[in-house]
Structures are given as C-alpha cells and as structure tokens.
Write the structure tokens for this entry.
Amino acid sequence: MMRTFLGWFTSVFLNAIALIAVAQLFESFYIENFQTALIASIVLSILNFIVRPILIILTLPITIMTLGLFILIINAITLMITQKLMGDAFVIDGFGIAILASILISLISIFLQKLIGDTVKQS
C-alpha cells in the first residue's frame, strides 16, 4: 500500500511540475505558485479517477469515430473543471489553450515519469 501511495504522490508531484512548465510557456495559462500547482494536480488526479471514466463512457461513440482523438477533449474538460474549482490561483483563458495545455502536460508528465523510472532502475 505504501508503494501505491508513493507512486501516486510521485505522479502528482511530476504533474505539478508539468503544470508549472506549461504556465511558463503560455501567458493565457496561469498558476500562482508551486503549492497551487500541487493542489491543482491533486484535484486533477481525483477528477481523472472519478469524472474522466464517466465522460469516456458517455462519449464512447464519438471517441470511436474519431479514433480516440476525442480523449484530448475530455482531458481538456477535466483541466477546465480543475481550473474552475481552483479559483483565481489557476486560470486558463479559453478552451483551445486547455486542449493544447492538456497535450503538453501529458507529454511532459510522461517524459518526467520515464526519466524518474530510468533513474530509479539505475540505482
């Protein structure tokens, strides 16, 4: 159980770093500080666990028709919900930037997870 919690916390921490990185890239994507990014990452993790599967099931026909590309829209929706829950400390100016940000956050998180995984394997 401790390993599972540690894996989840590592994922949340790396996701927070990805959020900060995206905030540095775009003026229309604002996060107040790292603490806010960490809280947003926790909220996003919870939404991905609860809301995302429901959205995927409800939009399954369109997801199949778009060969899975509609998942990008679902990711952007969960990011926008997170932004709404966080208030003024986390602001995304528009759905288009949310789509782009969700793609970049995913890519950065995957890269960081891979980097951490490779570092742990070498130890």
Remarks:
- The longest strand covers residues 29-31.
